[in-house]
Amino acid sequence: MKIAPASATKARARLSRERILVAAVALADREGVGSLSMRRVAQDLDVVPMALYKHLANKEEMLGAMLDVVVGEIDLPASGPDWKVAIRDRILSARQALLRHPWASRVIEVRTEPTPIVMGYMDSMIGMFRAGGFSIDLTHHAMHAMGSRLLGFSQELFNDRSDADPSMDAEMYAAMAGAYPSIYELFSAVSHDDASVVGQGCDDQFEFEFALDLMLEGLERCKDRATRVPG
Amino acid sequence: MKIAPASATKARARLSRERILVAAVALADREGVGSLSMRRVAQDLDVVPMALYKHLANKEEMLGAMLDVVVGEIDLPASGPDWKVAIRDRILSARQALLRHPWASRVIEVRTEPTPIVMGYMDSMIGMFRAGGFSIDLTHHAMHAMGSRLLGFSQELFNDRSDADPSMDAEMYAAMAGAYPSIYELFSAVSHDDASVVGQGCDDQFEFEFALDLMLEGLERCKDRATRVPG
DNA sequence: TTGACCGGTGTACGCCGTACACCCGCAGAG
DNA sequence: CTCTGCGGGTGTACGGCGTACACCGGTCAA
Lengths: 231, 231
Prior knowledge:
2 copies of one chain form a homodimer.
Chain A: H1 17-31, H2 38-44, H3 59-71, H4 83-100, H5 103-110, H6 116-131, H7 136-146, H8 170-179, H9 181-192, H10 204-225
Helix pairs in contact in A: 1-2, 1-3, 6-7, 7-10, 8-9
Chain A binds a DNA duplex through residues 14-15, 37-39, 47-51, 53-55, 58-59.
């Protein structure tokens, strides 16, 4: 009776930053970042909202810490002679982490200040370019050029995933063909041409790797030319 | 007295979707998207908040319409024989529009459904690739690969603009060098090497064009090789 | 034994988006 | 000229948000 709580029925585990983050990440995974509020997280933990503030300064810090959890899931850099496959593999691992937590990219896009964890990730990324023989200048440009791809996602203008159901009726088709002939042409090619590399809709993984490789090879050429601008 | 309002002192102009959007864009330009609330916009228009809802379904629609205003500022595509300079110029024009309204990229990143105006922009972009001789497949990949650059911005992982004041004291420097050696190396090169193309801090315009050209040239090679994947 | 501290609680404030009922002035029908 | 419908601005209210602040019970060092 000394150690256990007075009432056995309400033996709730103690709160901790860790437990809060686990609950918050789980909630975001389950219901999306839109449903992520301090109050909901507290509720999931059977705790009053203000309790969270004993462990986190505010919601902003919680979001940052949640990102750290995701970044922590990215594989460490492989050591190997080939910088290109090392960087490529790492970025694809980052992408897997982001795909496990689809809310994360949205959060990254909106946030401002990076946490030490994210800084560390960037640092090691820079290190990989440098180890691959990139000059400082070119490394700098490379980091900018890769943009969000460094963290495993690319900014899509809109989510074409499951763009309505496949049964897009002829009426809509016709309207679209009139208003947006080029989109229409592209869209019909993509969704009907079975021989195309994209079957139904877009193969996001393929598109991501396509752009990634385009970038990496462009950078490689810059490096080999030892010149700064691609033109 | 028949036409003019009863009280000359309170002759307020009638509300309209147009007037609301002008006020909203101005507010966002002035105080940032964080301060953009229906209530603040209404206040700027000397009107009760609910009045806005006679002209807009909800805030989401207002944000979309605000984006349309920005996209409307992008130059029309130039007609010319060279697809690369045409696309390049148009994207740089998009970038200028986005720079005039810094909140817009944040809004784009978070939004889901595109408006007809944005669809029209994308359509004409696709048309430019097609007119330049790109196959449908390659056009499709190109659109994905360009990602947010099509709209004139690229996702930066964090805003390094005015990273603290230039007087970064030696203590912080040392701490940074220990924790993030690669970032440190890059950072000091960028901020101290006057010969570098980047003087103090980053030249965002240069970085944007660097990545843009890398992408465009990679796409050009794909097109000329008439192959689908860059490798 | 005491008292400080740490972590969970309760209440409250000010902001948000927006549903809903209202009301007024004008247009067109009778 | 009156009646009536209606479009657009109003007022009130609700539920949700982040979080400031006072409080309080248990643990543990002195």
